[in-house]
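Database export, one record per block. Field names are fixed; values are copied verbatim from the stored entry.
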Amino acid sequence: MTLQNNRPDHVNDPVTPEAAAPTSVIETLKDQAAQAADDAKGSLTAMASDARGKVSDIVDSQKSAGAEHLSRFAKAAQSAAGELDEKNPQVARLVRDAASSIDRFADDLHHRDLRDVLEQVTTFARKQPVAFFAGSVLAGFALARFLKSDAPPASTRTATPPATEV
């Protein structure tokens, strides 16, 4: 005796719309997840690019400010060299040479890419460590003098009298 199947033909068919529905939902979800991942990646890339631009602007601004400070420092060193001319002309010449080097460095810093300038300083320090160290020491002394000249003298500072109750 043969048993007859009382089910409709589409139930026995493995590729029916009812059987395909879960697969299409999964595929749709996969597509949506991939699209969301692509959108997130695009947003992150845009944010990273924007952040790089802002950091670059900040670095350029600080680089310009640093170049300006170095230029003022070189002028102060030139002034110090002028004062040293009568007492010790050899030291004055060294300070003047150091000030000229600092002024050239400030100009390079202002007009060139910061990475190029740092690479140039690093190369000079490796090739001429004694000269680099001597220049650093001279720059330190000149910087101390420059900072002292910018600070207001102690006699011009006003102290606030203690408050008294009436």
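Remark 1: The CA atoms of residues 2 and 46 lie 69 Å apart.
Remark 2: The two ends are 121 Å apart (CA to CA).
End of record.
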